[in-house]
Amino acid sequence: MPQFATDQKPDSRLIQAHDIKQMTEDLFCSMLSMSLSDTETSANVSVDNSLQAAIRIDGEWAAQMTVLATRELAEQIACAMFGGEPGDLEEQDVQDALGEVVNIIGGNAKGIVDKDCGLSLPCVGPAMELEPGGLRVSFACEGQPFEVCLTEQQ
Amino acid sequence: MKILIVDDSKAMRMIIGRTLKQTDLTGYTTTEATNGVEALEKIAQDPPDLVLSDWNMPEMKGIDLLKRVRESGNEVLFGFITSESGPETRQLAMDSGASFLVTKPFTAESMQAAIMPAVS
Question: Model-level pTM?
Answer without folding.
Answer: 0.91
